């Protein structure tokens, strides 16, 4: 029998989507389940296999949940602001709005061709005016609550994309999008004060159900450390240099200080410093390096001694030199450090290079070779009041000492920085702020939202990196919402992360025009029960959206403090050569070709069978055919089903085992082993002369989340009139998971006269008794003398008469 996948898949897709079978129902009595996948950027290239893998986990879970009786919200949308569309617009002159609409249409078609059970009526598009109106509204609330501010600072700037990048977007010192080396540029920047939430973002991780590595990445990003501030007096002045240190216990080993090239004390003591020009030159050089180069890469530490200023170590009153070096960052801690070369690797390298004093204060290493950085075993030496103490005790003691003497205090620090939140690009949400000469910066009136992007036909940023909106008079000139006078609009737009920081809220009420979403609907649907997405978004998008959510909770807009209950991340699909799929390598697999040739079900199955879901795994074309053969086998099994509503005797155990394993594997994102088990079961079924109706219905139900078109079709072909979507998920019988009952033959004088079923562990004596009690055997024993009874365990009992 040939399976016409094209016809069958179209038929079911039409049925599902036209009848809105997957529509989530607000306030239904069923328990709710909110499964969320990271929404795609609708690029012109359309869907690739990576998208399918990313959505498949919760596609399977959502289909299973519906069968378990849940009211499931499984939405999808489009994160459509951003550079690729804008760059395409610059190249072709086609307006980004038009490009976006086209791409969304294509993408939606492709998602439907794959059979995803999304609720397509709740689709959101971050570039839609009715959507970004609320993104702007949130920005205004942040501004009013002092969590959005403007400042002049050095920012990461990509000279090729001509945009300011956040730290998150320039990890490794390279532009996230084009890989160009990032440079530091002084700019007027909008910041969101995410650092205010650092501790809450850390605490909120405690209840997040996720893999340790996902938690650790977020923890490292937040980067909490605890230590102390210590004041070092600058010799012969009233000023002191404050440092942040995680190792106040090593204070007696601090033999010099290092400040960042941008440290303000250089300007303050310009006239006292004899080599001011050299310091300025050094600062200019440092500007050319990225933070990554300054902190991580530079094996060869550079620096300049400040000639004319020295400091006093407050615990031993020794005069120590002060250096300027670019391995100290102005934006972290206080921008100044006490250097302890004996126990800090960077300080050690620096001290060796400049021949500075190295004093051992922790016993245990060999400081003539390298810095000794272990803090677990060490005991303090050369440290006066701290001698003989452990590192831990020494820390406590010195902090108390510093606090008593008023020269320092206990402090906590976070590596995380405020979030640079503006871009000089066209295709983004305009920042809804107005600059008035009289009133300063004021937010646009909420009733005037959205501030629409003006329709233009030139999208390029100006050469100096100004936003293209700055050239549009009608946009820029406006009246001040406070005094009514002439004022100018902010012309920068928001970064792409804005729209994705709250989209999951909009899904609960996508068409609301009075609020970003109705509070009761939010209350019904939140939290997101399970969120799946890319590992690379764990530190950026997930932290950003948690920050916005916590803020919205604080101002009473959402009902819970944390948005997500559980988070997983899929691995990449690599090309068959093991490299990352890319056009230039020619190893990209087009999912639509596979859907065309083998069917969406085959593709879905194969993508989940390919390897462990959370690991990267290469593509393998021959595996696709194997997936298709599995489906063909299921199809052919229909020919041999009986009417029985019991499991076939020979299949009962494996049926129960499969139900158990598939159910559990899905919850543990072990889709590959779930499918392997289903394959084993189907092979067993193929071997049988017949299979019961119950056997067949069960395999269809179990396969349904993976290959829903075929499952629905066969379900209908065997006479069911209601679809599989809300059929009950199979349950297993605990007592039928292992084969415990065996058959024993009872023979008289070597001839089999009866067969009995006994438990596997029945003893020899019991077997003998059971044999003698057999009515059938009795007929041949009656009136005769029993000479011998031979028991072969697990096989037979022979009675010799
Ligand atoms: C003395 C010391 C002795 C340090 C020692 C470390 C080891 P984390 O854990 O990352 O927070 N530091 C402080 N501010 C800095 C800045 N702006 N740029 C570069 N380095 C800076 O690191 C805190 C430690 O990093 C601080 O503790 C300081 O060096 C350095 F055996 O102080 B430590
Ligand atoms: Zn004004």
Helices and strands in order, then pairings?
Layout: H1 5-18, E1 32-37, H2 49-67, E2 71-73, E3 77-78, H3 83-92, H4 96-113, E4 124-125, H5 129-144, E5 148-158, E6 163-165, E7 183-192, H6 198-203, E8 209-210, H7 212-222, E9 224-234, E10 240-245, E11 256-259, H8 265-268, H9 276-287, H10 291-297, E12 304-312, E13 319-324, E14 336-339, H11 345-354, E15 362-363, E16 379-380, H12 391-404, E17 408-414, E18 419-420, E19 433-436, E20 440-443, H13 473-476, E21 477-479, E22 486-489, H14 503-506, H15 519-525, E23 530-534, H16 541-554, E24 566-570, E25 573-574, H17 591-598, H18 600-609, E26 617-618, H19 621-637, H20 652-667, H21 671-687, H22 693-703, H23 708-717, E27 741-748, E28 751-759, H24 764-773, H25 775-781, E29 788-792, E30 796-800
Parallel strand pairs: 1-2, 1-23, 3-4, 8-24, 11-13, 23-24, 25-26, 27-30
Antiparallel strand pairs: 5-6, 5-7, 7-18, 9-10, 9-12, 9-17, 11-14, 12-13, 15-16, 19-20, 19-22, 21-22, 27-28, 29-30
Helix pairs in contact: 1-23, 17-18, 18-19, 19-21, 20-21, 20-22, 22-23
Bound molecules: ligand ANZ and zinc ion.
Zinc ion binds next to loops.
